[in-house]
């Protein structure tokens, strides 16, 4: 199975001190920074855009894992690539030609990833795996749009299916990950863990990241 990695989501950082939030995550042992981009159309919330990716990339050395919760990702790819995104996740539910958009991300030298919402059937992404259009799959374990929601356990079945199909893929889980849920996600084959509110509310983020990593490895 690919390497276990912890990705703090800066959606849960203090927006008045975002650069410090990125540096704090890196110093605490984060493997990547997860940047949640929301357009107010695909999801009922607006967060931030490519300039925040640029800021994060300028402040830390770890990769930028960029989650595009936008209706038309194809219109914004270049801006996110130029800003310093390493992985770009698009939603299977977005209004775009998915293979074409994933191919465009790869052609620009970045890692393409596909994301699916809790209620979206796992079969919808089979083509992405069979054709290796993606390096990473992100399973949403909350309804996208907001941090701090509760983990939805029924998505675990989808994770297990994806892991059975593709032992090579980076399998990420996003939403409600904390010290109570990380082991459940690990048991169904996830190896990348996004955690926002849980990590940023800690006094000792390094200890919390180390604990998540340890539980995921067991
Ligand atoms: C939700 C975002 C998540 C969110 C996770 O739409 O995609 O990345 O920041 O937040 P927590 O860890 O608080 O559930
Ligand atoms: Zn996310």
Short summary:
With 218 residues, the protein is an alpha/beta fold. The chain has helices spanning 18-27, 50-59, 77-83, 98-107, 126-130, 156-165, 182-187, 197-200, 205-217; strands at 5-8, 33-38, 64-69, 87-91, 111-116, 136-140, 170-174, 192-195. The protein has a single domain, classed as Alpha-Beta Barrel (TIM Barrel), CATH 3.20.20.70.
Description:
The structure is a single chain. Helix content is 34%, strand content 19%. With 218 residues, the chain is of the alpha/beta class. The protein has a single domain, classed as Alpha-Beta Barrel (TIM Barrel). An 8-stranded parallel β-sheet has the order 1-8-7-6-5-4-3-2. Strand 3, helix 3 and strand 4 form a beta-alpha-beta unit. Helix 1 packs across helix 2 and helix 2 packs parallel to helix 3. The two termini are 13 Å apart. The model has no long low-confidence stretch (mean pLDDT 98). The site of D-xylitol-5-phosphate has 22 residues, from strand 2, strand 8 and helix 8.
């Amino acid at each position: 199975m690919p390497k276990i990695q912890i990705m703090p989501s800066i959606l849960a950082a203090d927006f008045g001190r975002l650069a410090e939030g990125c540096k704090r995550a890196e110093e605490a042992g984060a493997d990547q920074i997860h940047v949640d981009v929301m357009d107010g159309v695909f999801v009922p919330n607006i967060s931030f855009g490519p300039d925040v990716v640029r800021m994060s990339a300028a402040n830390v050395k770890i990769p930028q894992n960029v989650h595009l919760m936008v209706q038309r990702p194809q219109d914004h790819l270049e801006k996110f690539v130029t800003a310093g995104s390493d992985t770009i996740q698009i939603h299977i539910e977005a209004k775009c030609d998915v293979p074409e958009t994933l191919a465009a991300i790869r052609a620009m030298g970045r890692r393409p990833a596909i994301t699916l919402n809790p209620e979206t059937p796992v079969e919808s992404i089979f083509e992405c795996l069979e054709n290796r259009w993606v390096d990473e799959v992100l399973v949403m374990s909350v309804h996208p749009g907001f941090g701090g929601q509760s983990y939805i356990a029924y998505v675990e079945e989808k994770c297990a299916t994806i892991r059975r199909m593709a032992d090579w893929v980076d399998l990420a889980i996003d939403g409600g990950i904390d010290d109570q849920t990380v082991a459940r996600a690990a048991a169904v084959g996830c190896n990348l863990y996004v955690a926002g509110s849980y990590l940023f509310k800690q006094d000792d983020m390094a200890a919390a990241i180390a604990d998540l990593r340890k539980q995921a490895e067991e």
